[in-house]
Amino acid sequence: MANIKNLKKDINYVLGDIIEAVYLYELTSTGKPTTETNALIDEAIAAFDGLIAKVNAKNVENKKAHFKQINTEL
């Protein structure tokens, strides 16, 4: 159970760092959001939602392989 908790934290931290980096880039370069940065943020949020949904899936046959695949996707 602790591994699932750590995997969820890793997903949150990694994708949160990506979104934060995009916001910092916006502030330092143009000062306002662009369509490209908005697309990156939307993609990161979609990836977060998809990965968390996979982690929370209950009907998995081989849990070890399933979580290993999620970790490699991250």
Task: Give the structure's gist in a few sentences.
With 74 residues, the chain is mainly α.
Please provide a written account of the structure.
The chain has 74 residues and is mainly α. It is 81% helix and 0% strand. It is elongated and about 50 Å long. The protein starts with a helix and ends with a helix. 7% of the residues are buried. The model has no long low-confidence stretch (mean pLDDT 90).
Secondary-structure-derived class: mainly alpha
Q: Helicity level, as a percent range?
A: over 70%
Number of strands: 0
How far from one another are the termini?
19 Å
- Uncertain stretches of 5 or more adjacent residues: none
Continuous helix count? 3
Indicate how many domains the architecture comprises.
1
Run of helices and strands? HHH
Assess the beta-strand content as a share of residues. Answer: under 5%
Please tell me what the overall shape is. elongated
Largest sheet: none
From the alpha-carbon coordinates, what is the Rg to the nearest angstrom?
15 Å
Query: Residue-averaged pLDDT, rounded?
Result: 90
Q: What are the salient characteristics of this protein?
A:
74 residues; mainly alpha; 3 helices; 81% helix; elongated
Which helices and strands, and how do they pair?
Blueprint: H1 2-29, H2 35-55, H3 63-73
